[in-house]
Structure formats: C-alpha cells, structure tokens
Amino acid sequence: MNEFWEQTILEPLRELGRQAVTSLSSLMGMLVLILLGLAIGWVAKVVVYRVLRALQFDRLCDRLGVGTEVERLGLARSSSYLAGQIVQGIIVLTALLAGLTAMRSEWTQNLVERFFLYLPHFLAAVVILVAGALVSRFLGRSTLIAAVNAGMPSARLLAGLVRLFVMTLAVVAALDELGIGRTTIIVTFAITFGGLVTAAAIAFGLGARELARDLLQAHFRPTTRPEDKDTMQHL
Amino acid sequence: MAEEILAPQVRDQVTALGTAEIVVGIPSYNNARTIGHVVRAAHAGLLKYFPDRRALIVNSDGGSKDHTREAVEQAQLDTQGLLLVSHPLQPVHRLTTPYHGVPGKGSAFRTIFRVAEMVGARACVVVDADLRSIAPEWFDLLLRPVLEHDFDYVAPYYKRHKYDGTITNSIVYPLTRALYGRRVRQPIGGDFGLSGRLVQRLLARDVWTTDVARYGIDIWMTTTAIAENFRVCQAYLGAKIHDAKDPGADLSAMLVQVVGSVFDLMETYSNVWRNVFGSLPAPLFGFPFEVGLEPVSIDLPRMLGAFGQGCRDLRPVYDQVIPAPILKELTECASLPPEKFVLREETWATVVYEFALAYHRRTITREHLLKSLTPLYLGWVASFARQTEPESAAQVEDRIERLCLVYEQLKPPLLNRWDAGKR
Question: If you measure CA to CA, which chain A residue comes closest to B186?
C-alpha cells in the first residue's frame, strides 16, 4: 500500500514540484535578466545620448543629411537620441533572448536559434535601407541643383523621380535580403519599372515630339546655348 | 629634401643659363594663336625697360595639342621695329618646358617659380598666354615695383567693361578686401609680378598637388601675399582682351572653383582675418587712362528666370543655409516684374557670408552648396546690370565701392558666428 502511495501519488507530486521549482527558477531567471536588461539599457541610452551630444554627433549627422531625415520621419528628437535608443534596444533584445534561453525549453531554444540565423539578414536589410536613403537624398539633390542650373523647368520632378528610383531599388534589395516575397517583388518591380519607362518614352515621343527633336538636336548638333547670348566674362 | 619638379634636361638647361635677375613665366595650354604675341611683347618689354638685366622667358606648357610650344620657339624676337632708348646689354633667353604634376595653371606656375628660384631671380612676372591686349609696358609696370620699390606682389588693375568680371566684382574682390583689409581690385586677374622671396615662400607651401593648383592658384597667391604681410601693390595695365572664352565653360563649375577657393582660404587664414577691420588701399603704379572696351551683351530675362527658379526649386537647400528673413526677401524679389527687380547690397553680402558659414560648417555637401549659389549669383548680376544700365564706368565703380563697404560692415557678425555651432 505504501509502495503504491509512494509511486502513484507522491512521486509524481514530487516530480511536479521539482519541475515547478525548475520552471519557477527559470522564470525568475528570465525576469531578472529582462529587468536587468531594461535597467542597463536605460542607463546605456542616457550615457550614449549624452556622450554623442558632447561629441557633436548631431552636427555630423546633419552634415551627412541623416539628421534631417531622422527629424522628418519623426524617428527621434535627434540623431544622438536615436543612437541611444538603438543601443537600448539592442541591450533589451539581448536580455530578452538570454531570458528565453534561461527557460531551457525546446521552443525557446528553437526561437533563439532562428532569431540568430535571421539577424544578419535583418541587419543587412537595415544597412541597405539606410544607405539607400542617404544615396537617394544625395543624388536627388545633385539632380535638383544640376537641373535648376541647366534651367530645366521640371527640375523638382526629375529630382523626385531620381530619389524615388533609388529608394525603390533599396527597398526591393532590402526585402530580397529579408526573403519576403522575393520573386513577386522582383517581377513586380521589373514590370512596373519597365512599364514606366515605356510609358514615358511613348508619352515623350508622341506628346513632346518637338521637344524631343530639339533636345536631340541640341545634343548632337549644338548651335547657340542660352548662356551664349551673354558675352560677359564672369571672372 | 624638397621634391624636384623639373625634368633632368630642363634642370641642366637652367643650370647652363646661370643666373637671371628677371623671369617672365607664361603658362599655356593650346594657345598657339596668341602665345607668339605674348612672347614678343615680353621680349620687347624686357629689352626696352630692363636692357641691362639678365632675363629669362619661361613657357610652361600643359601638353598642348596645337603646337603652342613650336609657336613659342618660332616667335620672331627681332628688335628692328622697336624704339629702344638704350641698347640692350643682356640677351633675353627663352625656355619652353612641359610641366609635371596635377593638370592646371598651378603646376605651370610651380615650374616657372622653380626655374626662378634656380636662377636666383629677384623678380618674376607671370602673364596669361591668351592675351591679345598685352603690351611691352605691362612688364615694366609689373616688374619695376618689385625691382625698384621693394614690393613683393604686384596685382593687375585692368579697365574692364561694367558687366565684365562679375564674380570678381560681386564676390571675390569685396570678400577678399573685407577679410584681409587690402583693396586689391583684381585679385584673380591672371597677370602678376612677384618678388624672389615671395616666390620662395609660395614654392615651400604644400598646395601644389591639391585643388588650389588646379583651380585657385590666382586667389591663393593674392591671399597668401596679403595675409602673410608681403608688400602688395597694383599696376594699371589698361584693357585686358584675351582669346574668345571657352564656350563649354560652365558658370556653376566656375563658381565652385573660384568661390570654393576663397572659402577654403578663409579656413586657412581665419586667425588673420578675424583681427582685420576696415581696409586700406593698395598703392597703384601706372597712369589710369581711358580705353575703348569691347561691347558686352547680357541676357537679363534668362538670369531673372534662373533666379526665380532657384528661389522656388532650391528652397530645401536654401532653408538649410540662408536665414528665413533673407530667404523671404529673396523670394519676394523673385516675384517682382523685371523692370522693378532689385537686390539690396546688404542682402547679397549676407547671402555670400551665409554660404561661407555653411561651407565652414559643412552644413551640406560643399559642392552642392557652391553650385546652388549659381541662381542667386545670376539674380545679383541681373539686379546689378539693370541698375547700372544708364551709369558710367565711374558710377559703377562707386556702386562696387558701396558693396565693398557693406561687406566690411557685415563682417563682425560673421566673425561672431564663425566659431559658433548654430545659426
């Protein structure tokens, strides 16, 4: 009877208790790690923000055009603050993953493993997007200034198209890196871009034949440019 | 030991020549049509005005494809047609050499200066190879202040059409004058006289492989001479007429090169100009006489159109550079009818100073910044041309003088903000 009691009732209860204690300690460990991560993350954010501000990181970002983008997109109140937030996010995320690892369950282990496998792709996509934003801004502004100095009436439209084109390329490349709808996106992009170019070519050829002729003539058989009406020496 | 820039055979030639008191340098690139005339004028000038001094004419060529060097060698240097007061005691030697280094006038100057240093020249004069109006008197005017009055730098003073030299008149001259306190009317004239000691100082500088050598050699030499307290004067040379301008020359590229050089020098000499207030005249040699000038035509509607489009389309760029009240004023001006279009001197000087500050702080990419100045510059030129249409040359000069004074008045606020972080 005692043996039956021991094997059927007490032993499972003890096992349950042991598991409960193990789970509870894992849970506690996870909570402690997350709380620690939150605290360290907050401190790190403040420290990074203040150090970068002291180093005039915002001025550097403004020069590179990043500061304006951060402000325009409402990402943060300044580039230094955004950098602090990114550091905080990384620390909190690391703590969360460490906490999940502390749970020692197959599901959490699997989740952590998959996260780390995906992380490089995610980071590469972020880098592609940031680089795309910077390049599109730079090329857009180059086009705008050159077009205005050349007296082209549609300078802003042209600059906008350049920015849109570069940004679209960056988004497509980023999504491709993330493996989201890879084939669909590339095909959609190719069809849309090809369609736009064809439409623009037809519109230009049909609707602006005179302009097309003048432009080609000016390029291949230049006569007098508008500024040549001036005979002044600027220097 | 300093890098030797002369080819061995050129060095041997120079060594064989021995010493020379005067070196005339003529940098060239595809100037076969005009360089013969320049060489003859130099030769005649040296024989006429400095017959007892050993002189050397150096042509430093940038790899011309049009037989420029042959034109120099074939230039007839006979003196039969010259009325010489005294018989020349010393022959004038000639040397033509390709230059090495970065393409541009700077490398040509470096070669000329190195030759001048090697022969121990007391005075060196450099003149453009495309000049049509050059006369033997130019060499007297550019050399005598150095040889007999102990000046180190002789800048040219030309008689120009009121619509000519607008970058000089509206930016380079007023800004250089306000910054460094010397009234050198043509700081980027192209024809200069230099003393041997200034030549040595310039040669010792580490700028010969930079953009200064490519684009900004004239303003660099003028600024260096003024900022480093060399004795500077001017020589009245009359009209400057040169070969037809390059039709492909792009105004915005020109602004990038010239204004960028001036702004770069502001960084280099910020410790000098921050202590300078007001300006002093630079002595003028020669007799200012009236000359007939070639007519100049300008396309006012195009300039106004460019200014209007710039104010409209480049707003995102200007927002980062120009203070809101000035930008508002510019935008309002852009909407004025052509017959009422006027930009105030204060507005223009403020715009230039704001661009200088933005360049210093790298508010945006420097090339973008300088190129975006083009429409505003055209607006200023249009305003200037419209207002000066009925005015005489003297009245126009008074107007430029007023602009210079505005630049000088607005300098202290610039100075206050030069080191500050934010506008």
Answer: A235
